[in-house]
Amino acid sequence: MNTLVTSFLNRCRLIAGRATLGLVFATGAALAAGDVYEERVLEETGSGANWFLKGGDFSGSHYSPLSQVTNQNVANLGLAWGTSLPISGGIATTPIVVDGVIYLSGEFSVVFAVDASEGTLLWTYDPQVRTVFSTNPELSFIARAHRGVAVWEGKVFVTTADCRLIALDASDGNPLWSKTTCDTALDYFISDSPYVGGGKVFVGNGGSESQNKNRGFISAYDASDGELAWRFFIVPSDNPAENNTAALELAASTWSVDTLATYGGGGHSWNEMTYDPASNQLFFGTSGAYPYIHAERSPAGGENLFLSSIVAVNADTGEYNWHYQTVDQDSWDYNATMNIVLADLVIRDSERETLLIAPKNGFHYTLDRHTGELLVVGKFAKTNWASGINMETGKPNYDPEGEYWNLEDGASAYVWPNMWGSHSWNPMAFHPGLGLSYLPVVDLPGLVNNEGGGEDVVLVTEVDGSPHSPGKLVAFDPIGGSIRWSVDHELPYNGGVMATAGNLVFQGDAQGQFSAYAADSGEPLWSIATASAINSAAASYVVDGTQYVLIPVGAGGGLQYQYPELHSTISSQGPTRLLAFSLEAEGELQPQAIASRTLPEQPDLIASAATIELGATLYAAICKACHGRNAVSRQGGSVPDLRYATHQTHQSWDAIVIDGSRQMNGMPGVEISIEQAQAIRSYVLSLSGNIRTSAQ
Fold first, then answer.
1. I want to staple 163 with a disulfide (CB 3.0 to 4.6 A). Which of 182, 249, 439, 445 is the partner?
2. Does residue 332 form part of some domain?
């Protein structure tokens, strides 16, 4: 459903004709909505007036050349406006800003267009992803974390969890065309935004861990009509006849055919890509695959190309150019799908056109972007899976301490970083003037317990009984290969980063603070409490000569559901909002109080210990991804904390869980028996009882 609506802040003024007639400036010149094209991005990159692409411009650097706001005056930043978004599941997007209009997406791929000067909501578009949950309930979790849109030639492009690429009219949000990009029956999904360049729209996908037979691939579509231009498969097929390119022939020689036949190979590209118009290359990172353990996945050895790699292809044809594999025997799911930055650097007295990436594995890589040659590498976080990277071979020096699969039954070990990585989807930034990368770092291990030969990974914030600082903002030198400075956060999962020419770095954190630091030193300079945890990255733009700093607030991303306590605090579990700041603005950020939770009246627990145990097992397999470990969910989020379920909810349990009566709220029906559903209900009631007991 798409509608033209006014602001949720009850502003009376709707800018007449803005959504349909374009933006009219004092000169009388009108600009069509979403007027983004390659020549314009290149010509205006230095001005910073717009935030054309997810990473700001084609460099993907999340850097603004604006310098009206500096380290000298940032303390004078104030709230220019704030707009509540009708999203309860948080937000994980970097906004796009074009000619005074902000474009962004939220859970279930709902798209919003917002006036950049006042925060007025101009239009919304809902692709109705929830209608597919009855046939594919697993998408409910995936669809809650959506990472943005792309704007190109008058269109807003959005992807959906159920594998659609949709083109919208940028002026009013009306759909123009839709293309199916992958097959959800094979457990493919899309959680990231599309990417644009060279007249094409580039789309990746996820599904590596589904245990279904699928292969990751990149698709390129014509931006005008959505026709498929090319498709690049990241891993080979088990059918040799389909490995009909030099790249796939190379990759096939590094795989077990049996694994490909059973699991398909995985290797999906589920996060940011970068397009380079100068070399006409598209760069993307790839994930790992199931089974996680390399010896099980490839018992005869082999690098399993192109898993955990950065890949460069011709943007016009999809033809393979080069790759660099970050983990050639990946048994840790250390994806290399994090954002890619293009930077021109002087390395060992030579000017090099480089590519920068800091994947999950804790190492920051500087590569030649024309050949993939490793130029510089260094640690930005603690690692015990590898002691370093061999500069001659580019391969890791593996550390036996991190080989969790060799644990004896019943033993446990800490693995640094955890399988979710020391740097996830939250984007890093790069400051070309200072030559530094800025990373949101998770310095958090996974505790691996090996019981009966199976591995269970749990995130921990204490090691051997001692707490440590799990979250950091790190400034990394990509030439020297070392950390320049670091700022500690109390919680691990914090927001992405934006750097500016004003010698500033902006980042939001899980405690709801949106802060500015000196880019050269890390000195904290300004901060404001937003009452909502922040995972998104900021953007900056200019309207009527004023620089704005824009940040979406509200915890986003998948781990907020499994580990809400690592994503927010009670004081930062506020609503999802879009906040814009400018110098000398005097708007007040209204506090958003979170009501304390009390247990409602609930039915008595009548169940055996065996039933409760069965319910715990079923809950972990079916419910945990959305409702959290041990049924602990974020207060105020889109997924309710089942421990606080009302008597009415318990009475309607089977209708909700089995029949999908709350599907349009994001809760799909699940194919289980009534006995199994009631076992889960009994387990949840037992947890409610634990809360009552502890309160007495």
1. 182
2. no
- CB burial class (10 A; 0-12, 13-18, 19+) of residue 397? exposed
Look at residue 4 in the predicted model and tell me its pLDDT: 29
What is the SS3 assignment for 342? strand
Could you give the CA distance from residue 362 to residue 288 in angstroms, rounded to a whole number? 15
Closest C-alpha among 182, 218, 183, 184 to residue 201 = 218
**CATH number (domain holding residue 629):** 1.10.760.10
Residue 255 and residue 300 in contact, taking contact as beta carbons nearer than 8 Å: no
Q: How far is CA 304 from CA 251, 340, 392, 403, in A?
A: 7, 22, 20, 18
Say if residue 588 is in the same domain as residue 620.
no
Q: Which amino acid is at 366?
A: T
pLDDT given for residue 451 in this prediction: 55
Task: Give the pLDDT of residue 14.
Answer: 29
Determine the distance from the C-alpha atom of residue 512 to the mean position of all C-alpha atoms in its chain, rounded to a whole number. Answer: 18
Q: Name the domain boundary from 535, 567, 594.
A: 594
Low-confidence ranges of the chain (pLDDT < 70): 1-30, 451-456, 467, 591-595
Tokens 């089977």 belong to 654
Q: Are the CB atoms for 179 and 190 separated by under 8 Å?
A: no
Count other Cβ atoms within 10 Å, centred on residue 692: 10
The range of the structural domain enclosing residue 550 comes to 62-92+493-594
> Could you say which DSSP state residue 340 is in?
-
Asked whether residue 497 falls in the same domain as residue 589, the answer is: yes
- The answer to whether residue 656 is domain-embedded is yes
Considering its fold, how many domains does the chain have in total? 2
Residue among 636, 639, 612, 610 nearest 626 (CA): 639
Would you state the pLDDT for residue 456? 60
What is the rounded distance in angstroms from the CA atom of residue 113 to the CA atom of residue 251? 43
Cβ neighbours for 164, distance < 8 A, ≥ 6 positions apart = 127, 178, 179, 180, 181, 190
Cα dihedral across residues 304, 326, 214, 493: positive or negative: positive
Same domain, 497 and 572: yes
Q: What are phi and psi of 524, to 5 degrees?
A: -70, 130
Q: Among all chains, which residue has been given the structure tokens 């959504």?
A: 19
Q: Measured between alpha carbons, how far is 64 from 43 in angstroms, rounded to an integer?
A: 15
Taking a C-beta distance cutoff of 8 angstroms, is the pair 378, 468 a contact? no
User: What pLDDT does 569 receive?
Assistant: 87
How are strands ordered across the β-sheet holding 63-64? 63-64, 497-500, 504-508, 513-518, 524-529
* Cis-peptide into 189, omega within 30 deg: no
CB-CB contact of 325 with 308 (8 Å): yes
Return the sign of the alpha-carbon dihedral for residues 526, 530, 532, 536: negative
pLDDT tens for 179-188 read 999 999 999 9
Tens-digit pLDDT profile for residues 202-233 = 999 999 888 889 999 999 999 999 999 999 99
Of the residues 57, 115, 276, 333, which is catalytic?
333
Single residue among 594, 617, 634 that ends a domain in this structure: 594
Coil, strand or helix: which one is 27? coil
DSSP class of residue 102 equals E
Please indicate, yes or no, if residue 472 is contained in any of the structural domains: no
Please tell me whether residues 613 and 589 are part of one structural domain: no
Gap between the Cα atoms of 365 and 483, Å rounded: 13
CB 630 within 8 A of CB 562: no
Q: Is 172 a catalytic residue?
A: no
